[in-house]
Amino acid sequence: MKFSFLIAAILLFVCLNLTAQHSKRPVQLHGTLRTTGNQMVNAAGIPPQLRGISLSWSLWAGKKYYNPEVIDWLAKDFKISLLRASMGVQPDGGYLQNKEEQMKLMITVIDRAIGNGIYVLIDWHDHNADQHLEESKAFFALMAKKYSGIPNVIYEIFNEPAQQNWDVVKAYSIEVIKTIRQYDSNNVIVVGSPRWDQDVDIAAADPIKGFDNLVYSFHFYASDPNHQEKLRAKAELAMTRGIALFVTEWGVGESNGNGEFNREKTAIWMNWMETNKLSWANWNLTDKKETTGLLMPGASESGGWKEENLTEAGKYIREQLHKLNK
Fold first, then answer.
1. Closest C-alpha to 74, from 107, 45, 52, 99
2. Residue ranges per domain, the chain?
3. pTM listed for this prediction
4. What phi-psi label fits residue 255: left (phi over 0), alpha (psi between -120 and 50 degrees) or beta?
5. Which fold has domain 49-324?
6. What is the mean pLDDT of each successive set of 10 residues along the chain, which is 326 residues long?
7. Which residues are catalytic?
């Protein structure tokens, strides 16, 4: 009888402990992130495998979703552990032209993500960031001063260098990293890679040294015929060379945002990310009519979406997040 009581007590303890773990928000579970060797890890030294959604450019069709209600819904209904806030920099209406509005949009969603206990990528969404070094340094100085020591925050300093070689990207990155580290000595910084964040093997051959907690962004579009075995091999070589990767953007379609949504190719990529314990943000939360858009045209600007408000991509990503972010 006493033995049975003991077993029951142990089972109850285990169940309560598991329930408590599941009720914790991602930042409570993982704490401050860092890098060790070729992996980004949590406070316990284990890869957290953050999974979530990238907001679209803070311009055009995606701008209207930069609000607290949407972030609440993504955290509650999509069960994201990661949000990427993609601040448009160079296009008309972006940060270079409208700093005050863009800062307000970013701070709104960053603060809401923090309030929801999820991680947030502060993304300088600029293909020509090297041409805007001083503006970038000023922006990230403000962000680092404001969010230093807050474990939710991750800095992404150069979205998809397009034509720049690694020497240019590296020199730019070192200057921005120095600026961030003046105010925030620990939080993870994501460094861009040449050729739309695909040439991570080239970056890995000559990585940035002298700073802790750096990861390198790796992007792909799962159904694109040019983004298959050879691209995965480049990423694997980069990891073998010792750098940590973070898939800060990927889409179910092709690299132009449209094209087919090939479920077989997408499943291969999903399995690959799981096998390599990589964190990811899916592109993108918009109601623009495109393959990678997650919302149907006219979807509510305040969340609360039903299945009929989601595209095929939206339904698939929500399903994957529910399955993986248990």
1. 52
2. 49-324
3. 0.93
4. alpha
5. TIM Barrel (3.20.20)
6. 48 41 86 98 98 98 98 98 98 98 98 98 98 98 98 98 97 98 98 98 98 98 98 98 98 98 98 98 98 98 98 98 94
7. 160, 249
